[in-house]
């Protein structure tokens, strides 16, 4: 069942992005930036966590979850160390994503030739 | 009055390509949903085969998806799907990996240091900037409110 919800929610988030691009004429960069801020904003009241419980990867795979996990990491350290903790913990949960993106991006750019 | 500059927008509208709104949305829905289903499959694998918890399985899932989409970008497959799927390939985290890999590949001819390394975050930098700024501001606000209560 979680697979169906992942499909519907993940697809739905992408449709919102497509509408922002087609109807409001935003560039992909603007759409992605909006989604990241939106993900962080939705996390403030714990709404995004409920969406993750409901849809699994349908909520963790779209880029909105990046903003959500940035704030999550910041808050978990913030509760232990106060305001300084926010800076200490902001990349705590997204570390794997950013590390792998840099690592694989670099290696693949070394190996492959540009296409098109 | 085709040459009337005041009505430029109206005159030019007839010559602009019509956007197939419904078709674009359907493609984005199907491809975006499909990427999330693959993500769910990887997450389930990490949870039941490698015994990650539901919370900690998200990290390796995202890393695996990034590896797959970076490879697909290297082979030139991702861009072909992106032409068809629009936001369906931009919004998932795979689009983030695609923008990093493709801008690095594009500038490869300028060398490893000045080409690949400096251009790695050319497109993806905005995601990190907006993410960190919004998370820091909201985090400070939330901590402040929690301390008041």
TrEMBL record, chain A:
<dbReference type="Pfam" id="PF03862">
    <property type="entry name" value="SpoVAC_SpoVAEB"/>
</dbReference>
<feature type="transmembrane region" description="Helical">
    <location>
        <begin position="6"/>
        <end position="24"/>
    </location>
</feature>
<keyword id="KW-1133">Transmembrane helix</keyword>
<dbReference type="InterPro" id="IPR014204">
    <property type="entry name" value="Spore_V_AE"/>
</dbReference>
<keyword id="KW-0812">Transmembrane</keyword>
<feature type="transmembrane region" description="Helical">
    <location>
        <begin position="83"/>
        <end position="112"/>
    </location>
</feature>
<keyword id="KW-0472">Membrane</keyword>
<dbReference type="InterPro" id="IPR005562">
    <property type="entry name" value="SpoVA"/>
</dbReference>
<feature type="transmembrane region" description="Helical">
    <location>
        <begin position="31"/>
        <end position="48"/>
    </location>
</feature>
<feature type="transmembrane region" description="Helical">
    <location>
        <begin position="54"/>
        <end position="71"/>
    </location>
</feature>
<protein>
    <submittedName>
        <fullName>Stage V sporulation protein AE</fullName>
    </submittedName>
</protein>
UniProtKB/TrEMBL annotation, chain B:
<feature type="transmembrane region" description="Helical">
    <location>
        <begin position="127"/>
        <end position="145"/>
    </location>
</feature>
<dbReference type="InterPro" id="IPR005562">
    <property type="entry name" value="SpoVA"/>
</dbReference>
<keyword id="KW-0472">Membrane</keyword>
<feature type="transmembrane region" description="Helical">
    <location>
        <begin position="62"/>
        <end position="78"/>
    </location>
</feature>
<keyword id="KW-0812">Transmembrane</keyword>
<dbReference type="Pfam" id="PF03862">
    <property type="entry name" value="SpoVAC_SpoVAEB"/>
</dbReference>
<feature type="transmembrane region" description="Helical">
    <location>
        <begin position="28"/>
        <end position="50"/>
    </location>
</feature>
<keyword id="KW-1133">Transmembrane helix</keyword>
<dbReference type="InterPro" id="IPR014203">
    <property type="entry name" value="Spore_V_AC"/>
</dbReference>
<protein>
    <submittedName>
        <fullName>Stage V sporulation protein AC</fullName>
    </submittedName>
</protein>
């Amino acid at each position: 069942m979680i697979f169906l919800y992942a499909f519907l929610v993940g697809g739905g988030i992408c449709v919102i992005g497509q509408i922002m691009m087609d109807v409001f004429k935003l560039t992909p960069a603007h759409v992605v930036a909006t989604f990241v801020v939106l993900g962080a904003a939705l996390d403030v009241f714990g709404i995004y966590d409920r969406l993750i419980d409901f849809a699994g990867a349908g909520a963790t795979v779209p880029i909105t979850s990046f903003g959500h996990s940035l704030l999550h990491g910041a808050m978990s350290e913030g509760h232990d160390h106060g305001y300084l903790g926010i800076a200490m913990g902001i990349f705590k949960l997204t570390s794997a994503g950013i590390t792998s993106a840099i690592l694989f991006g670099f290696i693949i750019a070394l190996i492959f030739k540009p296409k098109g | 009055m085709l040459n009337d500059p005041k009505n430029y927008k109206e005159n030019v509208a007839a010559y602009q390509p019509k956007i197939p709104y419904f078709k674009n949305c359907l493609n984005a829905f199907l491809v975006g949903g499909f990427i999330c289903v693959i993500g769910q499959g990887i997450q389930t694998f990490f949870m039941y085969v490698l015994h990650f918890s539901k919370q900690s399985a998200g990290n390796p899932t995202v890393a695996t998806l990034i590896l797959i989409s970076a490879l697909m970008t290297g082979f030139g497959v991702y861009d072909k799907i992106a032409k068809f799927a629009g936001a369906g390939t931009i919004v998932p985290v795979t689009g983030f990996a695609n923008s990093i890999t493709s801008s690095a590949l594009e500038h490869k001819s300028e060398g490893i240091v000045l080409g690949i390394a400096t251009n790695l975050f050319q497109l993806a930098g905005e995601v990190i900037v907006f993410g960190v700024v919004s998370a820091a501001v909201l985090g400070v606000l939330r901590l402040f409110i929690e301390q008041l209560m």
